[in-house]
Structures are given as structure tokens and as C-alpha cells.
Amino acid sequence: MLMEHESNQHHNLENVSPSSNPGMGSIPYPGGAAFRVWAPFASRVFVAGTFNHWSETSHPLASEGNGYWSVDVSGAKAGDEYKYVISSGSDKLWRNDPYAKDVTSSCGNSVIVDADFDWSDENYATPLWNEMVIYEMHIGTFNDQPGGSPGNLNRAIEKLPYLRDIGINDIKIMPPAEFKGAFSWGYNPAHIFAIEEEYGAPKA
User: Fold this and answer.
1) With respect to CATH, is domain 2-111 assigned 1.10.260.40?
2) How much is the pTM?
3) Which parts of the chain register pLDDT below 50?
């Protein structure tokens, strides 16, 4: 039985093609999502997630050369959780996507994120350098609830008119990448491409 399983796994590896979708991490497209990761010392790489019932072997990635691996997975979609299963020698490692744009927590699963986001910045213009008044904002404390949870991006937006009225015309946000725990200055990121869950994650 084990030999048959290994034979089927080898067959799957031979028939998989690398993705033609550009980018790193999970890249959603109509009807599915591409996955690409750099794992130069891996002998095999698979992606497991809610879209394949966390199967370790259903979706192998094809080697692209230079350490890159990728695959298109039909049916995978925004909101699905996933991890890479990486084989190197006798080791099998379950790892989060280093390019994940969202995670369930700093030590949880990676999440596929819809690439479309309306920044509503059509009429934006950067202030002139000699007129710029910068406010360095820490999202977690800017408009938080004392004794409660950290502030978030939506609560910060509520108070933007106040900053405008005192003359601020440029905001520098302190690091918002996903970090361990709920409270941090942001300089200990766990996932540098994901927005901290407490701050509202990518949708915020």
C-alpha cells in the first residue's frame, strides 16, 4: 500500500507544470490560485490547505529552477488557508508562506488574499516638501480604547479630520506588519507582507 502511494505521488510530481502567473506567494486568479515559493534546498514541495482538506500530497509544486517552485491550483480562492509542506532529505516541514499577505495569527496559517483593493487615491497629491507636516502614527495607540484592545486602522481613520485641522498633511505609519501578540511597536514582525490582524488585516 505504501509503495502504491509513493508511486502515485511520483506520478503527480512528473505531471505537474509550473505556474505562468507572475508573483510570489499566493496569487488568486479567476477559478483558482497560483502558489510560488523559494525553497532552494527542497527535494519536493507541496501546498496543503482548506481547498484540498489539508492533503500533504494532492498538490505538488513544480521546480522552476534557481530554487523556485510553483503550481496553479484550480478551486483555491481568497479566504482559503494554506501552508507549504517542504521535503528536504528525511525532513518534512510544514511552513507558512513567507510572502503571505494575511495570516490567521503570527503562528497560525497563511491566507489567500484577493489582490483587488480600492485605495480610493485617484485624487491624491503628495504635499510639497517645504509644506509637508509629518505625523508619525502608531496604529495601536493612536485612537485606542484605554484598558481595551489596541487601536486599528478604521479607528485611526475616524480621527483623521482632527489631524487635518491641526495642520498635519502627511502621515508616516509605524510598522503594521503581523507581529507576535496584540501589542507591539511593530519592530518584531513575524510576517512582513501581512497586515497585523489586530489592526484590521488586509481589508482595513
Assistant:
1) no
2) 0.83
3) 1-11
Q: Is 97 exposed, middle or buried (0-12, 13-18, 19+ CB in 10 A)?
A: buried
Kindly write down the DSSP assignment for every residue of 104-141, as one continuous string. Answer: SSTTS-EE---S------TT--PPPGGG--EEEE-HHH
Report the amino acid identity of residue 6: E
93-133 tens-digit pLDDT: 999 999 999 999 888 999 999 978 788 888 889 999 999 99
CB atoms inside a 10 Å sphere around CB 199: 23
What are the CA-CA distances from residue 68 to residues 21, 44, 84 (Å)? Answer: 13, 11, 13
Domain ranges of the chain: 2-111, 129-187
In contact, 178 and 132? CB cutoff 8 Å: no
Question: Apex CA 126: angle with CA 124 and CA 129, to 5°?
Answer: 170
The rounded distance, in Å, linking the Cα atoms of 114 and 187 is 26
- In DSSP terms, 173 is beta-bridged to 137
One-character DSSP codes across 57-92: SSSBPEEEETTEEEEEEET--TT-EEEEEEEETTEE
One-letter amino acid at 47 equals V
Under 8 Å between Cβ of 126 and 107: no
Around Cβ 179, how many Cβ atoms within 10 Å? 24
